[in-house]
Automatic annotation (TrEMBL):
Keyword presence, Methyltransferase: no
Function recorded in the entry: Transmembrane component of the tectonic-like complex, a complex localized at the transition zone of primary cilia and acting as a barrier that prevents diffusion of transmembrane proteins between the cilia and plasma membranes. Required for ciliogenesis and sonic hedgehog/SHH signaling.
The keyword Transmembrane helix appears for this protein: yes
UniProt name for this protein: Transmembrane protein 231
Chief subcellular location: membrane
PANTHER family listed in its UniProt record: CHST5 PROTEIN, TRANSMEMBRANE PROTEIN 231
Cell compartments where the protein resides: Cell projection, Cilium membrane
Membrane topology, from the record: Multi-pass membrane protein
Similarity comment text for this entry: Belongs to the TMEM231 family.
Annotated InterPro entries: TMEM231
A Pfam family it matches: TM231
Sorted UniProt keywords: Cell membrane, Cell projection, Cilium, Glycoprotein, Membrane, Transmembrane, Transmembrane helix
Source organism (scientific name): Tetraparma gracilis
Length: 269
């Protein structure tokens, strides 16, 4: 056995780090909850209001869904036809594999008509391209390769949605948002607010991991024992037939069994 899987619901905690980009025919707005990054946007930067809440439906200590409301003020003459939002979480696996990492969730929508709001509901699934080790304690992944934040805010490109997605594209472990329901509220938000309402559910994931030596030996012993029982049974029947009927050259020793004198007892060898 080279690998194995088990089910676990990742623990996602909001990191209080977001990135928003809104575009229209003559509009280009950006926002970040990290002050050092937001300062890079200059005149394109726009202060926003963010409300978040996590919901633990089964009270097991792990959030089952995450609710976010992003409010972007729109001035006169501005309109929004495309929006991108990146929300950063700290993801943890606490089962067989124990990892901690910062991971982004990307929400995007593009419409040909100006809108005043977006409602989206979907799932943020854990994705992996390689098996996880299960030996030792917790491992912090990508600690030296932050995707976004003060450490990576050295250029405007590094603090954009495209820059963030490019930096995490080569990771073996991440999360991916899959929208199930989306609604674009058509209408001009001129002089009002553009509101993004997101409902992100966190489902169980099938975690691929490298089994320990003990688990490999236990699995191998079970399989080989089952095979040997079947093979041994048919070998015994075959050998008995060959020896009894002397299909090949066979030596036989005739003995008496206990007090039953004259009753032959055959030994096959």
């Amino acid at each position: 056995m080279k690998s194995n899987t088990y089910l676990e619901q990742p623990s996602l905690t909001y990191n209080h780090k977001t990135l928003l980009s809104a575009h229209g025919p003559s509009t280009s707005l950006s926002h970040s909850s990290v002050p050092a990054v937001h300062a890079l946007y200059g005149d394109a930067g726009r202060a926003c209001t963010i409300k978040t809440r996590s919901v633990d439906s089964n009270t097991d200590g792990v959030a089952d869904e995450f609710l976010l409301t992003y409010t972007l003020p729109i001035k006169s003459g501005e309109s929004v036809t495309k929006v991108d939002a990146v929300i950063f979480f700290q993801a943890m696996l606490k089962g067989r594999a124990k990892i901690v990492m910062e991971t982004p969730v990307h929400i995007s929508y593009d419409s040909g008509l100006p809108g005043k709001g977006l409602y989206t509901a979907g799932v943020a699934g854990f994705k992996q391209m390689a098996a996880l080790p299960v030996k030792g304690g917790y491992t912090t992944l990508y600690a030296d390769e932050p995707a976004f934040g003060t450490e990576s805010a050295t250029s405007v490109h590094g603090s954009t949605v495209a820059g963030v997605l490019s930096s995490v594209a080569g990771r073996n472990f991440t999360t991916a948002y899959e929208p199930l329901h989306q609604h674009w509220s058509v209408g001009e938000a001129e002089g009002g607010d553009f509101v993004i309402e997101a409902r992100i559910r966190i489902p169980q994931a099938e975690i691929l991991y490298v089994p320990t030596a003990t688990e490999v030996l236990r699995d191998a012993w079970t399989k080989y024992l089952a095979m040997f029982l079947v093979v041994g049974f048919f070998l015994e029947k075959l050998c008995s037939f060959v020896y009894f009927h002397q299909i090949v050259e066979t030596k036989m020793l005739v003995e008496t069994v206990g007090s039953q004198v004259g009753v032959p007892h055959f030994k096959k060898f």
